[in-house]
Amino acid sequence: MIKIKRTNKTSFLEYEEEHYKTLLSDLERIPDFFKYVQLINELAYREGFTFYTGNYYRSIKIDPIPRILKKEEFWKISEGLKSRAEAINKFLYSYYHGDKVVVPEDLIETSPYFRPEMMGFDPPKEIYVYIFGEDLVKVKGIPYILEDNVRIPSGMSYAIKAHELTEKVLGDKFSVKGNEGDGLEKLKKTLTSASDTRDPVIAILTDGTLNSAYFEHKFYSDKLNLLLVEPSDINIREGEVTVSTLEGEVHVDVIYRRIEDLDFLTPGLMNAYLRGWVNIVNAPGTGIADDKITFCFMPQIMEELGIKEGVRQPFSFPIGTTKEDIEEKIKNMVIKRREGYGGSGTFVLHDMSEEEKKKVLNEVRKSPEEFMAQELLDFDTVISAIGDSFYQAYADLRFFVFVNDSSTSILSRVAPVGSRVTNNSSGGLVKPLWIV
């Protein structure tokens, strides 16, 4: 009998499903299960399955107990997210073309991701965001979206690798089987569609091995036969962009950027993009839709555009726009810095010590316009193999949407025991996910 260490009172609804009962029965029949867990993680580390924290390469741990989504659930969520993706691209087009939008103009212009050069510019095919990373959780089985990641969404390679290694080591021991995911195929198709050239040359722009997601950059380069280039490799010629390779300079049609600071690292690339010499995926300036302040307005944005909100989001509001004394109001909420990402700038006040809370609230008092507050959801947990025990742990889902298509390669991240924060930088694990 599997003994699960419970750390909270959260819903465990998924495990009442028949597929999970079969899966747990399979686990009980595997002798020395945690030796397999250790083997999977040793293989992952040897293959460079790591996350750079700023000081060292931390291995990304794999929790090999699959999470399962039913096909009908996947399609329902996917349709909702495709509608949201459409709304985000339309919002960006409207704002950068001077049309009125529901987000106050001063909030957009103070966003660290606002690019005034994009005003009036027509991006190729009128698409700003080709690749979306949408973070969801389930509350009693109902999905809620927590964040839109539209600048440099990452993590699909981790989902693919977690599935691959779990299948390699434990695949013959599970009665239920999940699909391997179509993420690589759809990523290549999407990047190719970003150019009108029949067989475009595509480069992944990385800032090198110290990027936290460098594993992913290299993974895509190897799997999809894309050029992996650093800023020093890029050359701006009159009318074109080239990159230096061992075989010489090569013309590039599409740059899949995985860096933020184009102006500092790649001077001239922004101008080349604006002149139509190269396409950049995702486009510069998309971050105004990635800003946590904009997230608060997404239901109104979708309503204004006449697009149905297919996946609901928790109550959220920009703290700087509230005149009342809000400290009592936000004491049990999640506080997010507007430009935060990867778990940085996210504070679950409910789970913090009094001293930590005071520090965060002092920051909010000093710069309320830099923060938003979000309803704290007691979201569903999963059974996870962590260390040498089974735990009930919080987990989220990151869906990857490609313009008007959704991938079956879905990242499920598991929070460390006792935490609700699932990000890799916060010590989160990665689960394989099956759609059955």
TrEMBL record:
Transmembrane segments: none
Cited SUPFAM superfamilies: Glutathione synthetase ATP-binding domain-like (SSF56059)
Domain Circularly permuted ATP-grasp type: 66-410
Source species taxonomy: Archaea, Thermoproteota, Thermoprotei, Sulfolobales, Sulfolobaceae
Protein name as catalogued: Circularly permuted type 2 ATP-grasp protein
Organism: Acidianus ambivalens (Desulfurolobus ambivalens)
